[in-house]
Amino acid sequence: MTDTYDASHITVLEGLQPVRERPAMYIGSTDTRGLHHLVYEVVDNSIDEALAGVCNFIQVTINNDGSVTVLDNGRGIPVDIMQKNKKSALEIVLTVLHAGGKFDKSTYQVSGGLHGVGVSVVNALSRSLIAVVYRDGNIYEMRFERGRVSVPLQQAEETEKDLETRYILWYGEKIPGKFRNRNDLLAQYGVQLSGTCITFLPDDTIFETVDFDYDVLAHRLRELAFLNSGLKIRIDDRRTGDSEEYCYAGGISEYVQYLNTGKEPTHPDVISLGKKDPENKLEVDVALQYTNTYSEQVFTYVNSVSTREGGTHLEGFRSAITRAINNSSRKNNLIKDASLAMRGEDVREGLTAIISIKMANPQFEGQTKMRLGNSNVKGIVDSLAYSSLSEYFEENPKVLAAIVEKALAAARAREAARNARELARRKSTLESSGLPGKLADCSERDPSKSEVYIVEGDSAGGSAKQGRNRRFQAILPLKGKILNVEKATQHKILKNTEIQALISAIGTGVGEHFDAEKARYHHVILMTDADVDGAHIRTLLLTFFFRFMKKLIEDGYVYIAQPPLYRVAKGKQEKYAFDEDEMRALMDVFGEKGVSIQRYKGLGEMNAEQLWSTTMDPERRVLKQVTIEDAGYANEIFEKLMGEDVAARKDFIKRHSKEVTNLDI
């Protein structure tokens, strides 16, 4: 450190350098979530063209070299020179933050890419980026390296590949043999063919991984196709040959049908509502259907951008549906027991809904746009949704009766489960009278400094209790496999002994009474055996947390312990390995002669000292933090793996079986 501090120590980062220096500020993270966010930023620009009514086809290709190509048949990014900057509009869009057409309301009435930083950020975080624009009958190309121009804008010669690309722009399929020359194609389509093609290769010096996941991208693209009815979106993975094409004329109504695949609907048809508020330039579309399940699935979007943390539009919808069902049921004399009131949680049990709004000036919290903050939206959505639902129930009394019957059953179950919930609710952070007897609590009372290990069985629990640091580490042993909450009513769930112990130990309560601030531990660590049963128990626990304490996952409180699989020893030397490759590497270091290898099938095989040194000591342990990258995708996976649809689960296992490299049977 120097003794002086003056103007010479002030650094001004030029152009896109701030993005490369602090990438997480712009894309959230540099892990797999941030990597896939690059694709979403480029695709969102194409979606904005679709929202403007000038694009009906988008193609995403994962190339063999690890790059991704996004192609659309929109208007094409302008290439003319901007007089103020003396540079092409294409170069400005790709190299300057907060530059784009989204700030001009005559160009885009609604847009998801409002901040104008998306594609320039992608350029900054890519080793290379190639932009090809089809516009005014010509082809323009420009190349970049790590955000800087490497090949200036130039008009490109049209090749046979360009001809095929032009055809794909309009029809989403390969060009037929009869159009194998430029004159034939242009005679057929004139000079109206237009679009943008962006190919980028993520910078492996910035990202923790540059390996794109086909399933993650396919899920997001399918979601976008549902949200933009009639838009054709195709994804191709040239690494594996996988490909899908999505186009849904029914829009979000088909989305609800897709989400409810394998479930028994309470009423046959999806309820579809659409209302506009011209004064506030806001359009609300809602599709919903009830099923025989017990969980609520509501996904929200603004201008096709997923707001996974909800916001004012979700608050407005929840208020509207609760009022509409209660008022309509009273008006039609459907509630015989005057003492039984239907709460919000009752009318949303078994509900699957999509809320999609389009508006001119959404205020998102952060660049990754996870929550809508416009305060006036709540009242607008509430009013529009309430009037539409009330009108629908007036015209469809049988649907209303079926929904009310299910909601009343949920209300009765809630009353029956009240005692169980009271047991689960934590009374005070300083009291232990309401804590389960099997919990070996810690002495620390500051939740941010406390952690609880949820372990499988008494044997592992005994070793963990002996090996732990009693000051800040608590141990909660669970007996056997907990109830699969994906297939049970809340009443049955809250009567389960192991789940009661889990809820009361953590202290947050569940359902309407859940309060993350009452969490007694900010590290909730799942520590199960490394065999098939242990993996199953871990999955059951994760299902519980996802359905009943999702906020703990979102706040970063849930972790998975990583106990070693092997102990490799020679003489007085001993090392631990977490997988077979690491074990073999240790054998090479020690030399095979005189080396003993112990494979741990369960935590109970470790003594207290070994468990502490390998899995519980904060200085040496490895923990995996559980995060939710895409709530909709996570929901889909939990339903497939833990739900009632056996066929869907078999299909998932078949598709992903080749990814299993170390199956322990």
Written overview of the protein:
It is a single chain. By secondary structure, this protein is of the alpha+beta class. Helices cover 37% and strands 20% of the residues. The longest helix is centred in the middle third of the chain and has 21 residues, at 375-395.
**Relative helix content:** 25-40%
CATH level 1 name of the largest domain: Alpha Beta
Q: What fraction strand?
A: 15-25%
C-alpha end-to-end distance = 57 Å
Outline type = globular
What is the CATH homology-level superfamily of the largest domain? Histidine kinase-like ATPase, C-terminal domain
Mean pLDDT: 83
Quickly describe the structure.
By secondary structure, this protein is of the alpha+beta class. The chain folds into four domains: 17-246, 2-Layer Sandwich (Heat Shock Protein 90), CATH 3.30.565; 252-416, Ribosomal Protein S5, domain 2, CATH 3.30.230; 420-563 and 624-628, Rossmann fold (3-Layer(aba) Sandwich), CATH 3.40.50; 633-665, no CATH class.
